[in-house]
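Page 37, top half.
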Amino acid sequence: MISTKAYSLFLVSLALAFTSSLSFTAPVFTVKVTNNLALDSHPFTIRCTSSKLDTSSQVLFRGETYVLMFDTDQSTRWNCVIFSSSAKMTPFVLFDLDRDKSRCKPDGSCLWQINPDGFYLYVASIHKYQKQYKW
């Protein structure tokens, strides 16, 4: 027969073994911004920042995609600026966890298209792009 103390120690050990095998990582998101401007348009430059990180500027020609991968331990909000020689500087919120966790795809993909009339986000619940910002 097992003593109460030995049984309690067994349960604590079992609980510790179980919880140490679990992974408690923050959700990972992949945000993609695609230049979908007209064929004859100038490229644009994008630069994104969060409260903890700052990306370098990247020039996107038509059809090219900017990719930003992060977990929500790094940041829950990303602000970006897009500018080109033919358009004024346009700031926008690329990602906000509270706003976008239900709008992005279940796998954590958030898809943006920069079109001639504005910035569109693919909203997974309705399976289509919706205009979020205008130029």
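Page 37, bottom half:
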Amino acid sequence: MNYVPSWLDLSGQVAVITGASGWLGQALARRFALAGAAVALHYFTHPETIPALLEDIQREGGKALGVQANLSQEDGVDALLQATLKAYGKVDIWINNAGTYPVSPLLDLPLSQWQEVLDINLNTVFISIQKVARQMIAQGRGGVILNIASIEGLSPAVGHSHYSSAKAAVIMLTRAAAYELGPYGIRVNALSPGLIARPGLEEAWPKGVRSWLETAPLKRMGQPEEIAEACLFLASPAASWITGANLVMDGGASCRPIF
């Protein structure tokens, strides 16, 4: 049996995790369920990963449901929120994790791809914050909104002008939302990961992985489970006086000197 300290115990709470079919999303789902939260797991692509994830959580005694929706459309966010309320009656925690990560040089970047990246990585966050905050205000108990940003929102990368721009906007949207929603007891924070390990990454991007391992002070990539642990902290009572923050988790990569 896993011991959960009282300050990390989410028993009785309901957490919505977007992009739960990805590697990070799956780690978030498992960690929050282990901490006692009933979880609503959003997915749009890779639906084949969801049944096993739900089965794993339920086998361990957790509560979980899966909801497929396009969150770049308001109807999709409404569908996810309403499915959560129908199943659990409330929402306490909402994690904006869904995103896309295409590569295109700036001079070759078509407007359609620019718009798609902003739709998925930024507009979904805006729509979700607005709708879930209204629900949390109506519930009258406050809540937590956590946005997965990126270190690329703080420092650009070649071929990622659209992605970096969207994540930079997510970080500022986090701060703006924290300021406006604080009086309702709603905390809003961001977490900016660096390079996270996943199966096949070293084969697909050997140059990038090698460069990361050579220059990051901790000399390794992050694990999805490590990001999930930090998200649990930010969503828990242990972080009750933290809002408007952007936690950088990159193994020290952003500490590298300019000269």
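Margin note: The mean pLDDT is 95.
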